[in-house]
Design a protein that fits this description.
Length: 189
C-alpha cells in the first residue's frame, strides 16, 4: 500500500469531526427547555426482560400539551420498567404511572435554571471543540510525518494546514449555530 495523498489524510478528519458533532447534537437534544418534546425521553434506555432498548422502541410518546409528555407502552407489563428508567435517567423528570400510561409533567423553568442550562450547553460545546482540536492535531501530525518521509512537499504541508484550519473552523461554526439555537429555545419563555 502506497503513501496517502494530502487530500486523503485531510479527509480522515471529516467523519471523525462529524461523529463528534452528531454526538453533541444528540446530547443537547436531551436538555429540555420547559416545553414537552418527545425527543427528551425517546432515547432513555429501558431494561425489560433482561434486554436494554430505547423507549421509542417500546412505546408511543406524545405531547398533548406544552408541559406534558405521555408515554403509552405497547406492552402494559413494561410500565414499571419504563417509569424506573425515566426516573433513573438523571434528567430531573418525575414520571407518574396511572396503570395505563406514564405522564411526565414539565414545570416551567426559572430564569436561574435557564441560565444554568445555557452554561451547561456552553461547557458541552467547549468539550466538542476540544475534541475537534484533538482530531486536528492527530491529522496534522500525520501531515508532518508524511512531509518528513518525503511523501509530501513543504507546499503540501502548508496547504494541509490551511485545509485543516478551514475544516475545524467550519465545524466550530456549526457548533456555534447549534448553541445559539438551543440558547434561544431555552431563553424563550
Amino acid at each position: 500500500m502506497g503513501a496517502l495523498t494530502l487530500s486523503e489524510i485531510i479527509k480522515e478528519a471529516q467523519p471523525k469531526m462529524t461523529s463528534q458533532l452528531n454526538r453533541f447534537e444528540e446530547e443537547i437534544k436531551k436538555i429540555h427547555v420547559g416545553r414537552a418534546e418527545s425527543n427528551i425521553v425517546e432515547d432513555v434506555v429501558v431494561s425489560y426482560y433482561n434486554t436494554n432498548m430505547p423507549l421509542k422502541q417500546m412505546a408511543s410518546i406524545s405531547t398533548p400539551s406544552p408541559n406534558l409528555i405521555v408515554v403509552t407502552p405497547w406492552d402494559k407489563n413494561a410500565l414499571g420498567d419504563i417509569e424506573l428508567a425515566i426516573k433513573n435517567a438523571q434528567m430531573s423528570l418525575n414520571p407518574t404511572n396511572d396503570g395505563n400510561v406514564i405522564h411526565i409533567n414539565l414545570s416551567p423553568l426559572s430564569q436561574e435554571r435557564r441560565q444554568e442550562m445555557t452554561k451547561m450547553i456552553h461547557n458541552m460545546a467547549e468539550e466538542v471543540r476540544i475534541s475537534f482540536r484533538t482530531i486536528r492535531q492527530d491529522i496534522w501530525q500525520r501531515v508532518v510525518q508524511a512531509e518528513r518521509a518525503h511523501e509530501l512537499s513543504e507546499d503540501d504541508r502548508y496547504k494541509g494546514e490551511e485545509q485543516l484550519n478551514k475544516t475545524i473552523s467550519d465545524f466550530n461554526k456549526q457548533v456555534d449555530e447549534k448553541v445559539t439555537q438551543k440558547e434561544k429555545d431555552i431563553m424563550t419563555i
